[in-house]
Amino acid sequence: MSNIIDSFNKIKSNITKLKVKKDVNIVAVSKTFSLQHIKPLIDVGHIHFGENKVQEAIAKWTEQKKSNREIKLHMVGKLQSNKAKDAARIFDYIHSLGSQKLADILSNFEKDNNKSLKYFIQVNIGNEAQKSGIPANELEPFFYYCAKEKNLDIIGLMVIPPNDQNSKKYFKIINELNASMGLKELSMGMSADYEEAISHNATFVRIGSLIFGNRS
């Protein structure tokens, strides 16, 4: 399992070489991997982990989070409204806030349970039918609704760029949008393009296979 730590340290070293001014948080995307497989990273003190299925996250992390209060769990996949309340119980960060219905459910949950999560608004930068998120031209009123009317703690934007070998262009657009809205955090970049994302001010990168190996 030391290869997981070696891989993780190599990513950290690559990020250091980029000499960025902001802190960069590595969200180790542990979906489909067992807790036993992930544990070496927990044991060295890493705290940010990402999952994309609510039931898997509950089964895998409930006891672990009770015994290690430092762990921060990130919902990095599409969040369906019927799973939103369960997600809010186990996750600390939601990276895929992308509809008014979802904002309403999460806001009501926070009020009823006296719990506050941190949110990224997912932007569908390529207006792709198969992807969730808010179109860029609807972002401002949606942000206002979530932050002002629903009192959700929106810390930044999140993007999964179209798979057209042009990530740099989309990262630039989202970085400018994020800055124009005065948001401090930015969730973008995965195993294949995290360095490019960081060069465009990403502060949370979602990395799975480069750390844990290929999924079966």
CATH superfamily: Alanine racemase
**What's the Cα radius of gyration?**
17 Å
**Corresponding CATH architecture:** Alpha-Beta Barrel
Residue-averaged pLDDT, rounded?
95
User: What is the chains' assembly state?
Assistant: single chain
Word description of this protein:
The structure is a single chain. With 216 residues, the protein is of the alpha/beta class. The protein has one domain (2-212): Alanine racemase (TIM Barrel), CATH 3.20.20. 44% of the residues lie in helices and 17% in strands. The protein contains nine helices and eight strands. The protein has an eight-stranded parallel beta sheet with strand order 7-6-5-4-3-2-1-8. Helix 2 (35-43) links the parallel strand 1 (25-29) and strand 2. The protein is globular, with a radius of gyration of 17 Å. The model has no long low-confidence stretch (mean pLDDT 95).
